Amino acid sequence: MLLHRLCFTLVVSVNVLAQLVDPWNDVKTLLNEPQFNVDYFASDNKMLDSKRLQLSDAYSPEQQLKEYDEFWNEQNSTNSLQLKLYNDLQISAEKFNNAEALYKLANINLLGSYGLPQNKTLAVEYLMRFNEVTNYTNSTGLFEMAVIYSTGLLGTIPIDTPKSLVYYEKSALLGDIRAKQALAYRYLAGLNVPRDCDKALLLYREVADYIKNTYTPEEWNIFFPPLETYNIRVSDFEDGLIGSGLNTISASLTRTPSQKPDLSSIFYTQMNEGRIVLSFTSENMFADDDDQMIDELVDIYYTALDMYKGTYNKRRDPERARIALENVYMEYDDTTVLMENIQLYFYSKCIDLLGHLYLTGEGVPTADVATAEFYLKRSVEVLKPLTYIRSGAYRDLGLISQYAYNNITKAAQYYKYMTGMNDEDGNDFFQLSKISIAHPEMKLGDPFVLMQQAYSRGHVPSIYEFAKMLEDGFNNQHSCDDTAFLYKHFIEKNDHISAPQLKEAYVNLLLGKTEAAIWGYLQAGEQGWEPALVSTAYLLYRMSPLLDDEYVTSEERKQLSISYYSRAFNLHNTDAGVIAGNLYYNMGDYPRAITMYQSASLRYSSSALWNLGYMYEYGLGVEKDYYLAKRFYDEALEYDKNILLGVKLSLLKLQLKAWWSRINGYNTSSDDKNIDLFNSIPWYMQIITIFKNIINDNSRHSRTGSNADFHFGTYITTITEILGLTTEDLYGVAIVGLIFLFYILVRAIARRQGVQIRVNDQRLV
């Protein structure tokens, strides 16, 4: 770094002699160069298509500083646009006190933008100077400085909580909605400030009102647009925090590319009147025309749906979706009388989506109600043979009746017809609630309940409207905490407005820039967003897989990771509490690990209960107690039947240990003195002691009765209890054993008869 500063001083001296003009205009010209202005989400940019998350294996501040120095030592000053850009920025900042240049330098060193290296220490210096030059009137700079003081920028500077609160307050007063969220979260949770729900509610409402006003009345009241959200947990791309099938929290991923459904499932087989549909590629010579048509319709529909909604790696493209769907209509509409049920189903969905595009005006020059109505009614007509399936087109037909023709009665009929569908739209309930308020004589239902139904189905405007109902005491319902939570939930649904840095953080992850991604998630975590808290914690310190080397990171990062997991747990992410306990366990802090496991177990986490069983089994942070260990193992199985095998093996091990303790005359609870005494005597005395205990145990049993059958039954019962097995378990073991013996017998017969058994072109015998 010292060498770089000396080089910069020489460059500055030469440039100052050559020019006395601020080079900021040159910087703006450079930033328009293609290499500095890449649109990763453009339809013709394929860079992200094959990208997968690239997470760093370790973090070392020394290594980062070394990479920074190596980068500048290797630069060729005669042809490097990067070097010119950085030097011009430094001249503009140092010699002309240009605030924009200072902020750009801070961001470059925070994010490693434009292919330049990161340097967090320099980033903090530049951001401090930026706030000084702007006289502490820039809300964005103040918010980012507040985040740095709150987190210490992961060990770059000491954490200063009082300063962070001051900066959050200043930024919020200047209107920064992220700072308002950070303060609201702290007041709601009582984090570093006295808990004050009323203040939290006031701040959350201000942000929610601001977001609501960004939408047009048509978008808000009629058809709310799909949102390109990046509010995700990074861990969900890797089977969640605990593992596939073990997480208690549903995944946050909602915009991954659509998966083609299993057409051979019961649902589609019944729809197709019992004929099983086999999926083939278009090149497969064995596919008949019907199956090929089904494959084509399914592929086109889900491709168009992804274009309409957008995915994490591609922005929305309604125009391409509309063109693809119009081609479907022109190619297949004349053949609907020959289609089977499953073909009609997917063709109807294609035409339904096409009608929706014409209604909203997306992908077309202007909205066209007449054309939309034509396609929507055609979608309904096509599905008439399938009387048990309702077309989603009824919802849009209701909107046309209500807002184009002012036929409220007809619209309500369409909406009521749609409420029987188990979908995730909720707009039908939203419209019914508003009609019910305006026309109570229609007796459509309680508007409060209808709005609640819309909110529970994820309809975004309904979240805000339901919060307003609660706040206004609608139906005598009022709760400060519930209302604040609803406004918070609404805000987080609109992350493109309330946390735009999340999109950039995701791109940085795909590009392998983990440190830059952490900065984005760190900010949203400070705003109180549970997914961002988990993502930050996950990126800061990850649990290493079995047999892998331990993840190397700094102590500050470990502590912040645990803190963020704990905050996420307080925001109802049970799995985060389990992981916080695991991190404490890895650090040898067993009492805190026990506390986290106990808290998570109260939320019915099978993983937490299993971990508690393990802690009691080995006496880690608590007194060893086999009885309590067994109880926790049993409870874990009660809450999650998928861990049957693991629990049974744990119980088997536990019961064998308990049996061994009884044989040696120990209690099943902790008796460390007896164990130490036993281990201290010679090995031959240990064997004699064991046999003495066995003889004494048998003598006690022989005095209880003389009926041999009774003793045998008691013995069998004791064995099954020791092994933690039920009668059904024994039957299962016997059946598996018989199947195994039958398999061996078949192999032996096949060998004698000269038969070759093949599976997947591999000869078995």
From TrEMBL:
The keyword Glycoprotein does not apply. Belongs to the sel-1 family. The gene is TPHA0F02900. SMART domains: SEL1 (SM00671). The chain crosses the membrane at residues 730-750. It comes from the Eukaryota. InterPro entries: Sel1-like, Sel1_AlgK, TPR-like_helical_dom_sf. PANTHER family: ERAD-ASSOCIATED E3 UBIQUITIN-PROTEIN LIGASE COMPONENT HRD3, SEL-1-LIKE PROTEIN. Gene3D superfamilies: Tetratricopeptide repeat domain. Keywords: Membrane, Signal, Transmembrane, Transmembrane helix. It comes from Tetrapisispora phaffii (strain ATCC 24235 / CBS 4417 / NBRC 1672 / NRRL Y-8282 / UCD 70-5). Pfam families: Sel1. This is ERAD-associated E3 ubiquitin-protein ligase component HRD3. The keyword Transferase does not apply. Residues 1-18 form the signal peptide.
